[in-house]
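Note to self: keep these together.
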Amino acid sequence: MIEIYLLLIPLCFLIYLASSFARKGFLKAVLHSLLLAISWPISLPLLVLKRLFKRSH
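Structure:
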């Protein structure tokens, strides 16, 4: 299980960095992507719920 987690960290980082780079600027995008990549098991469901909540309002 830990191997899967370690493999997904860089993938999650790159995907989120690419999607947030244009909106936030380089430094903020890198820091936020690192934080998200390391804590993705907790932050991913929260991010999905946040986006669903934004769409409903």
